[in-house]
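Illustration: Rhodanese.
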Amino acid sequence: MNPLSTVLSFPPPDAADSAAWLARKLAYYADAWDVAEDLANGIEEIVVIDARAPQAWRAGHICGAVNFPHRDMTPERLAQLDRSKVYVTYCDGIGCNGSTKAAWKLASAGLRVKELIGGLDFWRRDQHPIVEGDAPGEWPQQAARSDCGC
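Result:
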């Protein structure tokens, strides 16, 4: 251990512990690039849920997402969802916990869920397709993709 290093003042776990923890972390979250790739490729096993209020949804949402505000997620409505799907929740961004509330409600109802890192803010930053209005929208045939460098 290096007494001068702030990073090493708490030693890292061994590689196996790191790999296990990081795999668990990736099980809970998806980033904008990965979600955009799946939507562009027509992956039907995921459903992207915009957990914001309808007026925020109409002002701009992820292309192909559905609006299901976390405040409207009742046990009765959640029971109607397809249990074979994986739901990816999002809200405005890291300063908003609507996606976390939605993910918690979905998981509490026995559904599989991931949360979109950075929400709509990171989605816009990465220049992925946005739709305005009431319709979910269809993924553009030639959606502009930027390499995130990851």
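Reading the tokens back as a structure: The beta strands are 29-30, 46-50, 61-62, 66-67, 86-90, 112-116, 130-131.
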